[in-house]
Amino acid sequence: MTAPPAIDADPRSWRRALADLRAGLRARELWALLAWQDIKQRYRRSSLGPLWITVGMAVTALALGVVNSALFGTSISTLLPSITTGLILWNFMNGCIVEGSETFIANEGMIKQLPAPVSVYALRTVWRQALYLAHNLVVYVVVLAIFFGKLSQPYRLVDKAGALLHPGLGWGMLLAVPALLLVLLNGAWVVLLFGVVSTRFRDIPPVIQSFITMLFYATPIMWSMDQVRAMNQASHEGFGSVAVNLLQLNPVYHFVEIVRAPLVGQQQSWTHWLVAGVVTVVGWTLALLVLRNYRARVAYWV
């Protein structure tokens, strides 16, 4: 008579945490369907349906582009593509942070009734934000079609080494594909980590919402690093250098740049890739640690 397979009785084990993650990935039909139903439910009975996502992004990007172009005297053909791509990426990251912190709280009913892996609910949130991202990318395609001629031309602005900061659009645009995949990968650990912690400590979501606006203004979305560099050259007090150094501490800035730079014809800096890679490793390590220790308690905390 063969012995039954050994079962890891300890809920706090790496084996169970990784098994939960693998089971969640295999249940892609479940979380993909739930995410799409979330979007359909949000725009139920509207004429355009999910296309309102694209329309809303287009109106916001156009308004910010026109206003900032008038305020700073920057060409709309230069500013609008940068603002558009920045807003698209910010909306995804903002959704993963804000909605991710409430992902298990919002799924309380399903968690108590449906015997599904915890990671399913995190993947549901990430996939919903990814669908929003896909809808918003349509706006970038339209902007690219309008300003392609301008974006394909190199700019004369150079860095200290004499390299063009804006070499123009080219095959380097393809770097945006692995960059987007890296952003999606980081969105998953953000939702897992913030979701579990916020389920235990209910004060975390309001704190996140309080600081998310500050993070938005500290990220070069409505303004550009070129403006900070110009300020650095014009200032005799080194304000621009201090601002640039402070920006390096903002991880969102690096993730925005690895995607936006190739999409708007800017020079791709491998420093951003290095920082993004380090954040990815550290973030997933923390998320897996939290999943290992507290995965089994989520159902009791909601």
TrEMBL record:
The keyword Transmembrane helix applies. Coiled coil: none annotated. It comes from the Bacteria. It is a multi-pass membrane protein. Keywords: Cell membrane, Membrane, Transmembrane, Transmembrane helix, Transport. InterPro entries: ABC2_TM. The chain crosses the membrane at residues 48-66, 72-92, 130-149, 169-195, 207-225, 270-291. Residues 31-229 form the ABC-2 type transporter transmembrane domain. Its main location: membrane. It is found in: Cell membrane. Belongs to the ABC-2 integral membrane protein family. This is ABC transporter permease.
